[in-house]
Amino acid sequence: MTTTAPGADGRAAPAPAPASAPDGTSAPGAATVQPAAAPGSSPWQLARRELRRRPAVRISLCVVLLFVLMAVTAPWLGALGGWSPDEFDKSAIDPYLGGQPLGSFGGISPEHWLGVEPVTGRDLFSRVVHGAQVSLLIAFAATAIVVVTGTAAGIAAGYFGGRTDTVLSRLMDLTMSFPSLIFMIAMLSVAKDVNRIVLMTVVIGVFGWPGVARVVRGQTLSLKHREYVDAARVGGASSWRILTRDILPGVSGPVIAYTTLLIPGMISTEAALSYLGVGVRPPTPSWGQMIAESVAFYETDPMYFVIPSLFLFLAVLAFTLLGDALRDILDPRGGRT
Fold this sequence. Notes:
The chain is mostly helical and about 325 residues long.
């Protein structure tokens, strides 16, 4: 029988502290105590803390917020510049030089902050900020359709399994097998007397949901047999309650990361369709449409091509950098190659 040597007061002596080296470090063989995570740190607090540590992410987040603010306040910004996006200024172009802007750098002046369009004299600043509103509206709305549809289909397929999984998985495969760009061009070319912004949003959203659905389905398959899900099922919780209270929070991290990476693709898709002439119709401004119109003047007025291209490049780059950072933080396993 093993006994414990009592101390001077009759109580058991406390366990000796781990030995330390003279320089303060733990001696070899001593137990090392790992620092515990800060109490009360949620995944979102950890994400915010990690985002603050990366200068490139902070810059991209500021650029994203700037573009969103520009899109929301486009009417007021256009009025601040003094020109509407469809207003012609014949005094800003030279009729004897084929309508080329007067002045250097595409007619940049105190009256026209980013210059003017050749031939028409429309203010580029006003058209660019209104183009941001159109491009981001289509991108955000199409992304919302993709995320909501893909998340619902992926959770249903992964949780219920069986015939539901088979039907939804085959529907994903069928949708992804379509040549989406060609089908978009065909649909947008045939449908003429409709709201182009609504049509583009729906068409882009219809072909984007299977990617999100596959990610969510895989996450749901790994979550539905966890202990807390089994406990909720045994406790009599309904399927709706389990899906909304247990499964959905578990897949929210990868979905948010995937959503941020979807937005730059949606912006590029809208710009590509407008560039090809099947997207937003004039006089509604769009970055892709402006780039398409500027191709004829890139030798005589390169600023007309550079300005909308630069705004499109910065928007796509900022959303991409922010999405990569969120994916690394919220879905680290999904970001590994």
